[in-house]
Amino acid sequence: MNEAEVRERRNAQILAAHRDGVPVVEIARRFGLSLSWTGALLRHRLGADVPETGRGIRCELDAGEVAEAYRDGATVRALAEEHEVSYGKVYRLLKDAGVQFRPRGGRVH
């Protein structure tokens, strides 16, 4: 199977998952794609009815849960990777929640 056929097969699986009600976030995770690329692929190349919000798909985070994880020692970067969103999205969410940020560069010994 050549590269184009592999991609076509993958795209058919992505579209089928979307039609089966699998969330776009989960589809992106399954296929190792970014959330924004998966949304754009579904929307523009595969003709799926996926809402367009900014550059990708709106991903709502639980501010309390994210803030608690940060207070328990998780880094902004680790939280962004865990939730598959940008560093800036996590930072703004924490800032809007009134979280006091730790100094940059880790703990001072």
Automatic annotation (TrEMBL):
<dbReference type="Pfam" id="PF13384">
    <property type="entry name" value="HTH_23"/>
</dbReference>
<protein>
    <recommendedName>
        <fullName>Helix-turn-helix domain-containing protein</fullName>
    </recommendedName>
</protein>
<dbReference type="InterPro" id="IPR045745">
    <property type="entry name" value="HTH_58_Actinobacteria-type"/>
</dbReference>
<feature type="domain" description="Helix-turn-helix">
    <location>
        <begin position="63"/>
        <end position="107"/>
    </location>
</feature>
<dbReference type="Pfam" id="PF19575">
    <property type="entry name" value="HTH_58"/>
</dbReference>
